[in-house]
Design brief:
The protein is of the alpha/beta class. It folds into four domains: about 160 residues, Molybdenum Cofactor Biosythetic Enzyme, Chain A (3-Layer(aba) Sandwich), CATH 3.40.980.10; about 40 residues, no CATH class; about 90 residues, Molybdopterin biosynthesis moea protein, domain 3 (Molybdopterin biosynthesis moeA protein, domain 3, Beta Complex), CATH 2.170.190.11; about 70 residues, Beta-clip, CATH 2.40.340. It has seven helices and 26 strands. Strands 7-4-6-5-9-8 form a six-stranded mixed beta sheet, with no helix packed on it. It has a six-stranded mixed beta sheet with strand order 16-13-17-21-20-18, with helices on both faces. Helix 4 packs across helix 5.
């Protein structure tokens, strides 16, 4: 054991212990297409202007706006066309005065011209173009660096790379991206009663939903994720399963007080050091956390909703920290409880529910399901509601805070 702790600790103390023992992983370089969802290991500063030169935003004619100052339908101006430039070509600034050049979208605009008139606003042939209205300087011209300026800081260290970021990084010419590694993880489900989906059920058996719930919740934060077959409820089989090189191991079931709840015993027999076992939360009170050097072990309860909730509030934030994400902590926001009464709990109630905006701020209501085995409590939920044990005299208006699923699974 690391030290003697109270039999049950608070959620706030437990999550801080998780973060205290969660290491940040090393850096590596990834090819641009592979970098999605990784955290940047360095600030990204553009070394180029995007776009790199003045160019036309329309198909049209580049001219000097001063020449068109007195144009009107009754007083048109005709100019000779001295050149045509397409995107990808190099333009010549050596254009005669009193001329126009035809430019296609994205083509460079010679510096002697300060505007582009759309094709449809002119009358033109192969050698001459006629204008019938004045134009403001800068019209339809994109300046160099209009999108991104050289030296501009685009992203800070720890930013999670989203799909649209890939294109932005490509636009500044970045081929290789410095990122933090993601952890490798193992999901171990215990319970002789568990059967894989698709197999026939016999009396006393249930389908193993936990493996799929936990794997889907943490998969995006892992480099390598393994989900082996269910482990039987014996110390020997559990000890062997926990003897893994994965940086994070997540178990479900076997952490309560029953005769076959053997995860803690097997972990300690295998050299894992217990950090805490039992947290004053509902659901998920028996949750277990241990370490072995830089490896982490999360023992989640077997009840499906308990497993999902404890994974969301303990495992996912830890994986985010390991993977270098700048924002790895959950940031609960105060809200008012609506449409459902408070629920009794000895510590912090952490329950799924609806979350919505109203005139005076956020409101929330608990899922109608009250069983920690009811995974369907997650149906139509928007996130998690945190309710601290109601204080005396405030049972009708307990303090609640909320975290949306978007925040849990993103930045």
């Amino acid at each position: 054991m690391l030290w003697k702790r109270p039999a049950v600790i608070s959620y706030e103390e437990a999550i801080e212990l998780v973060f205290d023992f969660t290491p940040k992983l090393d850096k590596k370089d990834l090819e641009l297409p592979e970098a999605r969802s990784y955290a940047l290991a360095e600030n990204i500063i553009s070394k180029v202007d995007v776009g790199p030169f003045r160019n036309s935003s329309k198909d049209g004619f580049a001219v000097f706006s001063e020449q068109l100052r007195n144009c009107s339908p009754d007083n048109p101006l005709s100019l000779p066309i001295t050149a045509t430039f397409f995107a990808g070509e190099v333009c010549s600034d050596n254009q005669p005065k009193g001329s126009a050049v035809k430019v296609m979208t994205g083509a460079p605009v010679p510096s002697v011209y300060d505007c582009v008139v759309k094709l449809e606003d002119t009358s033109y042939g192969t050698r001459q173009v006629t204008f019938s209205q004045p134009v403001t300087p800068g019209t339809n011209i994109r300046a160099a660096g209009e999108d991104i300026v050289r030296g501009q800081t685009l992203y800070f260290k720890g930013h999670r790379i989203e799909p649209w970021d890939i294109g932005i990084l490509a636009s500044i010419g970045l081929k290789v991206v410095p990122v933090f590694e993601k952890p490798s993880a193992l999901v171990v489900c215990t319970g002789n009663e568990l059967v894989e989906p698709g197999e026939p059920l016999t009396p006393g058996q249930i389908y193993n939903s936990n493996k799929f719930t936990i794997a889907s919740m943490i998969g995006g934060f892992c480099e390598n994720l393994e989900t082996p077959a269910t482990v039987h409820d014996t110390v020997e089989s559990l000890t062997a399963a926990l003897n893994s090189n994965h940086q994070v191991i997540v178990t479900t079931g076997g952490v309560s007080a029953g005769e076959r709840d053997l995860v803690v015993k097997a972990a300690e027999a295998g050299g894992w050091e217990t950090v805490f076992h039992k947290v004053a939360i509902k659901p998920g009170k028996p949750v277990y956390f241990a370490r072995k050097k830089n490896q982490l072990l999360f023992g989640l309860p077997g009840n499906p909703l308990s497993a999902a909730i404890t994974c969301a509030v303990f495992v996912v934030p830890a994986l985010k920290k390991m993977a270098g994400y700048q924002k790895f902590r959950l940031q609960p926001i105060p809200a008012s409880l609506s449409d459902s009464p408070h629920r009794e709990s000895d510590g912090t109630l952490i329950w799924p529910g609806k979350i919505w905006h109203r005139e005076k701020g956020l409101a929330a209501s608990f899922s109608s399901k009250e069983s920690s085995a009811a995974l369907s409590a997650l149906l139509e939920s928007d996130g998690i509601i945190f309710q601290k044990n109601p204080k005396s005299g405030r049972k009708n208006s307990p303090e609640i805070e909320v975290v949306t699923w978007h925040q849990v699974f993103n930045q």
